[in-house]
Amino acid sequence: MSKALLCCCEDVTASEVEHAIEKGYRDIESVKRFTGFGTGMCQGKQCLTAVARLLESKAKTKPSQLMPFTPRPPLFPTELSLWASASFDPAVAPGGGVPESIGLTENALKPEAPVPSKAKIVIIGGGILGLSLAWNLAQRGETDIVVLEKGYLCAGASGRNGGGVRMQWGTPTLITLAQRSIELMKRFARDMGINVWFRQGGYLFLAKSEAVVSKLERAAQLHNKHGVPTQILTPDAAREVVPELTMTGVKAAAWNPLDGVIFPWPFLWGYATAAQKKGVKVETFTKVIGFEQSQHRIKKVITDRGDIECETVVLAGGAWSPAIAALAGVDLPNEPHRHEICSTEPLKPFLGPLVSVLDSGLYFSQSMRGEIVGGMGDAREPAGMNLGSTQRFLTRYSQALTEQMPQVGRVKILRQWSGPYDVTPDNSPILGRTPGLPNLIQLSGFVGHGFMMAPAVTERMAAWMATNESDELFERFTLSRFEEGRMEREDMIIG
After folding, report:
1. Going by fewer Cβ within 10 Å, which terminus of the chain is more open, N or C?
2. Measuring CA to CA, which residue among 454, 408, 426 is closest to residue 333?
3. CA distances for 383 relative to 337, 339, 378, 398, angstroms
């Protein structure tokens, strides 16, 4: 194996690409995520051809299959201060931006072999929810499972988020689930044998309005009641946690040192690999195009690679779930909302917690590699599966970030991307059996926090599916609650 450098920006060698190929990653986007090539200053301009040639020679990937590679704007690394100096019209809704589909070739990587013709359980969605459920079911001895993913692993929302995990929520249920998820994340590397770079640097929420201050104060009381050590801080006290903050316009802050950040990609890969070792089949680049139903049950899942006869179907497609559910005649109230995010060049580590201005939806943290990774919600963003990248976001984000931390104004943004929040009418998930179609189990609607809740939710769902014992989680959060007028409101949502 050669140690020749293929990606000078990220020090990725030929041997590391070959290791990714041995692991089963045979497309450009997957190798990019596994090795980190193409994520540095040149954004793949210097190394893409070399990696493609290695895939062609070592993985026998056809030239027609080597085209998918999504270049990330901006075209050149650009300082935050420059973006902050630009203008935007706050009254105008965001446009489409640079299309997400640039570089993608439809069906280029579709496996030639058909999917398994039969499985006890089919899980639709190869994100963190679907894969962690498959692993938890396999832990209980149920391995006759097929997971279907329409793209590559980490292609969807699970691979596009900032990796934040927090116990600071507004309801006892989510607080309890988050506590358990963080407990599982702390031992994930040991249990799964993969480094997920989990770091408990805390979450520091900043409040600029009295309404948000009151929200944080109410939440802190609830947190303390459930054993979460959240404190309400003055701006001066919050500056002791992050000295670089200006605290411009900030009235108060909430601080929990037990919250943290985890690297999304290996977290998802860890579940996928562990599930596959137990016999679960993970089928990528496979689209669900319909269902065969009889006597109020799904009998087969129809894909573009063949049909799968099954006993149970779990819909874990995130913001794509409503479109899939519609194929079975089921109407889900979820709506996709684009949330943009970006990453800077790496800096010497200085920022411990994830910082969020709850009023505006701004959040940012520093990764273990040193990048400032952050995003910002946009109240003008319309519903829809639009995953383009916009200058409007870079301007709004840079202005808000440099207001609180002006010294990063000279730091360059390397790349930006977006992912969909899976938004429900009450900001709470849809779980459990589908009315009128009981073998279709819902697992979606987490409004941007499914990634951090997945370990605990799927642990409980696997137990519920395996034993058929009652669990209030899958009774309270059912799809039927909307028709019955029962809302499970959660308002501690960033963005």
Report:
1. N
2. 426
3. 5, 11, 11, 24
**Tally of residues, the chain:** 495
Tracing tokens 């194996």 back to the chain, one arrives at 1
Q: What are the two backbone dihedrals, phi and then psi, of residue 438, each rounded to the nearest 5 degrees?
A: -65, -20
Residues in contact with 38: Cβ distance below 8 Å, sequence separation at least 6, in sequence order? 7, 10, 32, 44, 47, 48, 51, 69
Architecture of domain 118-160+265-334+426-484: 3-Layer(bba) Sandwich (3.50)
pLDDT for res 411: 98
CA nearest neighbour of 340 among 261, 420, 230, 271: 420
**Alpha-carbon span 184 to 164, nearest angstrom:** 15
pTM given for the model? 0.94
Cα angle for residues 315, 317, 320 (degrees, 5° grid): 120
Contact, 88 vs 395, CB < 8 A?
A: yes
- The rounded mean pLDDT for the chain is 93
3-state secondary structure of 361: coil
- The number of CA neighbours under 13 Å toward the Cβ of 381 is 29
The Cα–Cα gap between 98 and 332 comes to: 29
d(CA 198, CA 184): 11
Report pLDDT digits (tens) over 396-446.
Answer: 999 999 999 999 999 999 999 999 999 999 999 999 999 999 999 999 999
Nearest residue to 119 (alpha-carbon basis) of 335, 300, 262, 388: 300
CA dist 430 and 437 (Å) reads 15
Q: Which helix (H) or strand (E) holds 306?
A: strand 306-315
- How far lies 388's CA from each of 37, 58, 455, 488, in Å? 22, 33, 29, 31
pLDDT at 103 over 80: no
Task: Give me the CATH code for the 164-181+197-263+349-405 domain, please.
Answer: 3.30.9.10
CATH number of 5-69: 1.10.10.1100
Biggest CA–CA distance in the chain, Å, is 64
Q: Which two tokens stand for residue 371?
A: 């990048």
Question: Among all chains, which residue has been given the structure tokens 């140690």?
Answer: 3
- pLDDT tens readout for residues 165-207: 999 999 999 999 999 999 999 999 999 999 999 999 999 999 9
Contacts of residue 199, defined as CB under 8 A and 6 or more positions apart, other chains included, come to 260, 261, 262, 368
